[in-house]
Predict the 3D structure of the following.
Amino acid sequence: MSPKSFRSSLRLTLLTALLLPGLAAPNQAFAARKHAKAKAAPAQAAVAHVPTPYIAIDVESGRVIAQRDSTRAWFPASVTKLMTVYVALDAVKSGRLTLDTPLFVSARAARMQPSKMGFAPGAQVTLGNALKMLMVKSANDLAVTIAEGVSGSVEAFADEMNASAHALGMQESHFVNPNGLHDPNHYSSARDMAILGRAILLRFPERADLFNIGAFRLGDQIVPTHNGLLGRYPGADGMKTGFTCPAGFNLVASATRSGRRVIVVVFGDTSARVRTAHAVDLLNQSFAGSASNTTIADLPSAGGAPPNMKAVACGGRSKQAQLAAESEDFAAPVAAAEGEQAAPASGAAIAALPRPSYEPVDLFVGPAPGYQGPVAGPRPADTPIGVIAYSAPPAAAAASAISHHAATPAPKPVHAHKAAKHKAAAIKGAATKKDDKAKAGADQPKHDKAAAH
């Protein structure tokens, strides 16, 4: 090699040595980023484990038996309806309406998502029947019907819900609707729901049968309860299940044994069967032990926003499966799925029992026979029940069966003072026409008047 060629080769070697690291760096960096991204992807998709809250209390004393994170804010789902029942029963107790008061189903109520009864707008259902359907079917449309019948509107009823929560000492609760359909501003806690359940049992003992109805019959259809404890766990006598994807599977359950009554609340479980097994475990623990010296009101509030359990509770579920998820699977025992905490043997044994056979409670649509009182429905806030005049509901609406079909538009309510104004105007108009006719007759020739007869 000539000296010139050697120098050229040396320069090329040196240049390559200098440039290659820089040229390689972007590729190495890209590879590193790609590797890191691939490694991080599962962590982003996975949902951090959220310990599900629970609490067990002695009803008589209000003392805590067991609890975990029970003051953590959580989406309550349909256990919200316990507060709907509380406010409605309080309105009955104060004389604002009775259990026989018919409630109008509005278009707003009919638009609610399932679970629902599917009554057409204009249909009527008594408050007593509506409450029973609410507890068994967890009917979102009837929750709105009750709210509008008691308070005039969903918003006014929510104000009453929050006022009641404050009066009861529920520190982590805020309600915006009567049915528990998801809203980020609608939340509670396991402790608060235990407070509410206890208040219902102590304040309205004569209404305890609302919470342990195994099934109801409406026409030729029988609707069973969602509560997997009723009829299978000895002494179980209520109260309410709940499920939405953000909330997970919730339950407020009460049971009585040897004269001692206990309430347990479980929030955020991953299926209906796991929820039932969890509640059985807590009930067994409660009846086997004694309460602590801590009262339910003594527990400090944890604060913070409620977690969203959608990925855990509904990951991989179709929309149809999500709608069906609230129903307990009575065909199989409650056994832990892979990766879930095993249920106690007693819980599995209880849940392995077949669906109980109930004598259904007969319910009906429409006012009670012979009822002559006011009908409650949507109306302005602070307006007494019965001041709104509604057009008569169609016959088909009065005989509505359970349906999920789209509802027809609601008859427009007419305010009483507007109705009176329209009536007065109609009378005045008729009188004017009569006068005009008489005047015209007087101005006509006699023979024309005779011919008119």
About this structure: Residues 12-47, 331-345, 389-401, 403-453 have pLDDT under 50 and may be disordered.
